[in-house]
Write a structure and sequence with these properties.
By secondary structure, the protein is mainly beta. It is globular, with a radius of gyration of 16 Å. It has one helix spanning about 20-25, and strands at about 30-45, 50-55, 60-70, 75-85, 90-110, 120, 125-130. The chain is about 5% helix and about 55% strand. The strands form 2 sheets. Strands 1, 2, 3, 4 and 5 form a 5-stranded antiparallel beta sheet that branches. A two-stranded antiparallel sheet has the order 6-7. The protein has one domain (about 20-115): Hypothetical protein, similar to alpha- acetolactate decarboxylase, domain 2 (60s Ribosomal Protein L30, Chain: A, 2-Layer Sandwich). It contains 1 helix and 7 strands; from the N terminus they run H-E-E-E-E-E-E-E.
Length: about 140
Amino acid sequence: MLGDPHRNPRIRRGSIRDAHDDVGITAASLTAIGAFERAIVGWFDFEKKTYKKIEVAEQCEVLSAIGDIAIGDDGKASLHVHVVVGLADGATRGGHLLEGKVRPKLEVVIVDTPAHLRRKEKPDLGIALIDISKEKT
């Protein structure tokens, strides 16, 4: 777990992606709970090769978030996070986390993994997937 930015000066407030630059994480799994002021989740449409955006324009609880961090084709951290958020009436929304504004906090646990994960763009699918080949490209 990365911890609190106030106690660990290597950690900045900001996006989960910052963990790659701040701590040098190249492969990790993550989980999170907390709350968003608003969020956008997505459902991937294979026919259109794009995400259908589902806007959550209200305060919501992050009931579950799970995902991974890998290095993308551009050498930067590439996130793949699925999230389920709960609304005030008990309804839920879920999908790929595309955007979320944290309020009041999001507790993220990032566990460094021993494998060097690399995410590679798959043009035929329209998405990037973890490349399990042993060759670095």
